[in-house]
Amino acid sequence: MAQESLTPELERTVAAAADAAPAVAALDPRDRAAALVAVADALEEHRTELVEIGTTETGLTTARLNGELTRTAVQLRMFADTAIAGDEVDARIDEADTEYALGARPDVRRMHLPLGPILNFAASNFPFAFSVAGGDTASALAAGCPVIVKAHSGHPELSDATAQVVGDALRGAGMPAGTFGLIHGQENGVAVLQDPRIMAGAFTGSIAAGRRLADIAAARPTPIPFFGELGSVNPVFVTTAAVAERADDLASGLVTSVSGSAGQLCTKPGFVFLPEGHGLDAAIASAAENVAEHRMLGPRIASGFARRRDEILAADGVRVIADGGVRLDDDEQGWVTATVVAVSLDDFRRNHDALIEEAFGPLTIIVETPAGTDLASLLPEFFAGNLTGTVHLSAEEAAGSTGNRAELAALVGALSRQVGRVLFNGWPTGVAVTPAMQHGGPWPATTNDSSTSVGSAAIQRFVRPVAYQNAPEAFLPAALHDDNPLGVPQRRSPAGDSTTWGDAARR
Amino acid sequence: MAQESLTPELERTVAAAADAAPAVAALDPRDRAAALVAVADALEEHRTELVEIGTTETGLTTARLNGELTRTAVQLRMFADTAIAGDEVDARIDEADTEYALGARPDVRRMHLPLGPILNFAASNFPFAFSVAGGDTASALAAGCPVIVKAHSGHPELSDATAQVVGDALRGAGMPAGTFGLIHGQENGVAVLQDPRIMAGAFTGSIAAGRRLADIAAARPTPIPFFGELGSVNPVFVTTAAVAERADDLASGLVTSVSGSAGQLCTKPGFVFLPEGHGLDAAIASAAENVAEHRMLGPRIASGFARRRDEILAADGVRVIADGGVRLDDDEQGWVTATVVAVSLDDFRRNHDALIEEAFGPLTIIVETPAGTDLASLLPEFFAGNLTGTVHLSAEEAAGSTGNRAELAALVGALSRQVGRVLFNGWPTGVAVTPAMQHGGPWPATTNDSSTSVGSAAIQRFVRPVAYQNAPEAFLPAALHDDNPLGVPQRRSPAGDSTTWGDAARR
Fold first, then answer.
1. Could you report the per-residue pLDDT of B286-297, keeping only the tens digit for each?
2. B433 contacts in A (CB within 8 Å)?
3. What tens digit of pLDDT does each residue of A140-171 get?
4. HSE on the CB side for B81, CA within 13 Å?
5. pLDDT band with cut points at 50, 70 and 90 for residue B1
6. pLDDT digit string (tens) for A61-76?
7. Would you call A183 helix, strand, or coil by DSSP?
8. CA–CA gap between residue B464 and residue B156 (Å, rounded)
9. Average pLDDT over residues A31-46
């Protein structure tokens, strides 16, 4: 079934992944977990050299990249625990039942099995955590799937160096050859995505590129799921009472969130709705002056940001609060600080088309709302899906004891319909890597919002359900054995259960 | 955001569903459950009239349609219990943690919320269970989503009558106007599928129609998930020892499974791999003679089956064991019994293209395999994804105590990679409606095999995850409250959990 269009090198990589798939799937989850921990340990052993390459290639600071490498190692270890816990297996056992409501019921047992080879398109802005050994790779390996990473062109050397560390660690841990592969080049990525042996795709990047790849995945003779994490403008809503309570904290928190990593984060707050007359201009300007100049990831991203920033500054009614600028150096690298502008709600509505598109860099737009504005209605009016939405409340409002409680609940409800994560009294950058994290949201935040790309639930993207009916134990996967040797959560439906269906709902 | 292309009537239906969505989502799960039980009770109250309309429109027997109505009522009550149990919510609570491995962790709580309005394309062959009040509708309502059903053209009168019963019951149970709607016509279905207010699609029908609709859903400006349950040929493998043990049971079981509902079931076994010299011809022919003639669903399906049957009978090397025929009556309705043919593995391989496509009707192809055939390798050689795959073993083989255990395990492994349900010593028709059932499989069995269209797990198709970060309890959904007033399963991650990540994998 090899595609003729693959080069010999790509063919070897894809064939190796396909050949490895049954063996990787059949491994005891503890063996997969041990391999993930071995990768985490190896990354930390090679920390100094990897961070050095990364700093040179991306312009991100040593502190940031050290933190990101730590995050990458921690999430590999989290997924090791996730694989052992086996929540994603969702093991269900229906006991055979001669008294079943629809005639005798067989013994049916259902679990989730790994999909097979996954193609993971790495991101530019997280050269460790969303790249070669990042969350997509870790979650797919934890699920029991071989992974092919398409390296991002922004850090090819780091990708090769990381792949060497990952490959060696996996081999050392006894994982089958073909468990992990690395490829370079956009066209190669598209060719592999179209190969029938690839069972799912993951991606972190722009809306345009993500849409193109998602369309390719959907149009294949055999369509596959494609989990793209794309753009987001992350609206923030601040109440009058919150401004009155902590103006300076809000100003400095906003500037820190907008300018961190030169604003090159998919969770950067792009729009902040503040009450008219908020009086934060001076505090914001002052906080922005203290932001150190930061190099952007590369010349293309810098020129794109400069262009987008110019468009926003040229729009009618835009007032500049902090003018971060973009300075190009002799290598055409862009150096930036924070740009903060403000616009009235009326002007925002009039110039919506010019203002709404994401500026990928350290810029945010404050929208000043008149008293009495129905904030909940602004969400469907102005925004499509987003990764996050944030509400800043006063202590009294948070307690639910103020007169505007219903309005605030309506705002939270509207957010929950349009975003993947609703934050209170914080800032959306700095995504915690935890079991309950949700990093994903309605289009165009992601191409598929049934799951997350951060946190342990991300493992669910790479499994599918299979049921076994009247299976002898000799041919049943261990997760479905009655004595539960893997200790996974099992949901048993005892014989006789159907006799009470519907009763709980009758009052 | 109304589309101009919708007729006024469609616009009213879609607008009503969109307007109802937040209210339906906000209902206490017990209220949704009570509404589902009310629909189940109402269907049973109107049983006689509904079954009468259905028999006339579809040619299915009164016994079959009575059973199907009971199944429909039972699954509505099962989904009532499912909604109350709240497994699909997958509530997760990360406790805030100042000692977290990556710096202080906020309080993060994640649950699944309803997607919003669902468009459900009803099936021809299950006028109750996969139609107006069927599993797709029941699971979407249980999830908290309004539903618009596109009626199947094969039973329009029954669809209208059922919709009247469903609508009255939902209104009587206090559900918001717009919770349920019915539309007719293929073009209308496509127009509504393209409407931005529709958040997901469900479908049961042919591969061609399902692919067309899935492509439309994927190509929308805002792509949506589309859960199509399409075609399947359901391969069955019978060992030599199983034939030796119970030849007559196998012959009669096969004929019953192939001919039930005139073979118009997506789980009908289309291919049966039997050892050469199985000696079952006489028993199969005799069982087939006892099958009563059955009317097919409609003239188009009958003529399609007659054509496909002729093609198969004309293929090289095909031997007729039981010749069911197709008799057309004066209304061009087709009447059928079971057709069973056999072909050698060599001829099957040679004429694969002519034989492999599904025959939607009471026909099965026995493929006779020489001793020593590697059965596991036949699956990827001949088949794409399927809803089911079946293995018939002898008692000794099932115990795992025979010399061919490894081969059989390889066959089961190959099946688990290509189908959604693996059966042992049974027949795939007659899908149990239970918590562990899986009805779905890799393309082209379904357009999206991350879930099921039968069984309580089907509710998971219509929800998406949302996280709340540092949310005051006043603005947090009840399923995520610490005191858990809804009693849903909550997965708590205590502070300090990250300190041990990876430890369990170190040996």
1. 999 999 999 999
2. 102
3. 999 999 999 999 999 999 999 999 999 999 99
4. 19
5. very low
6. 999 999 999 999 999 9
7. strand
8. 33
9. 98
Say what the pLDDT of residue B453 is.
Answer: 96
Ranges of beta strands (E only) in B137-295 are 147-150, 180-183, 200-204, 226-229, 236-238, 271-275, 294-295
Tell me the shortest Cα–Cα distance from B204 to chain A, in angstroms: 17
> How far is residue B456's CA from residue B435's CA, in Å, rounded to a whole number?
5
Check if B447 contacts A (Cβ < 8 Å).
Answer: yes
Residue with tokens 């097919």: B296
Please tell me what DSSP assigns to residue A28: -
The pLDDT assigned to A2 comes to 42
Give me the pLDDT at residue B4, please: 56
What ranges do the domains of chain A cover?
A: 8-230+451-463, 236-424
Tokens encoding B175: 């559900």
- Which residues from chain B sit within 8 angstroms of residue A435, using beta carbons? 92, 94, 491, 493, 497
> Are A145 and A151 in contact, with CB atoms under 8 Å apart?
no
The whole-angstrom separation of Cα B503 and Cα B507 is: 8
Average confidence (pLDDT) over B31-50 = 98
Report helix angle B375-382 to B405-418, nearest 10: 20
Q: Which residues from chain B sit within 8 angstroms of residue A87, using beta carbons?
A: 491
The CATH number of B236-424, from 1.10.8.420, 3.40.50.620, 3.40.309.10, 3.40.50.300, is: 3.40.309.10
Residue of B181, B195, B242 lying closest to B395 (CA atoms): B242
Does the beta-carbon distance from B465 to A452 stay under 8 Å? yes
DSSP, collapsed to helix, strand or coil, labels residue A238 as strand
Token duo for residue A284: 């914001």
Distance, first Cα to last Cα, chain A = 58
Angle at A26 between CA A21 and CA A31, to 5 degrees: 105
Note the ipTM here.
0.97
Q: What is the pLDDT of residues B94-127, one digit of tens each?
A: 999 999 999 999 999 999 999 999 999 999 999 9
Q: How far is CA B355 from CA B309, B358, B367, in A?
A: 10, 8, 11
Are B366 and B272 in contact by the 8 Å Cβ rule? The answer is: yes
DSSP reduced 3-state for B16: helix
Name which CATH class applies to B8-96+104-230+451-463.
alpha beta
Residue A491 is nearest to which of B67, B435, B451, comparing CB atoms? B435
Mark which residues 61-100 of A lie under 8 Å from B by CB.
67, 70-71, 74, 76-78, 80-81, 84, 87, 90, 92-94, 100
Whether residue A370 has pLDDT greater than 60 = yes
Q: Which residues of A touch B66 (CB under 8 A)?
A: none
Q: Is residue B372 classed exposed, middle or buried when 0-12, 13-18 and 19+ CB atoms within 10 A define those classes? A: exposed
Topology agreement, domain A8-230+451-463 and domain A236-424: no
End-to-end CA gap in chain B:
58
At the top level of CATH, the class of A8-230+451-463 is: alpha beta
pLDDT, position B298: 92
Q: By CA distance, what is B88's nearest residue in A?
A: A90
Q: What percent of chain A has pLDDT over 90?
A: 98
The chain B residue lying nearest A110, using CA atoms, is B436
CA distances from B67 to A503, B47, B63, B115 (A): 21, 11, 6, 31
Parallel, antiparallel or unpaired: strands B91-94 and B490-493: parallel
Distance CA A279, CA A248 (A): 10
Where do we find the tokens 């206490």? B28
C-alpha distances in angstroms, A482 versus A30, A465, A479, B205, B399? Answer: 20, 19, 9, 36, 16
Contact A34 B474 (CB under 8 A): no
Do A465 and B451 make contact, defined as CB atoms within 8 angstroms? yes
User: How is residue B89 written in tokens?
Assistant: 């919510």
Tell me, yes or no, if B266 is annotated catalytic.
yes
Helix axes A47-58, A29-45, angle to 10 degrees: 70
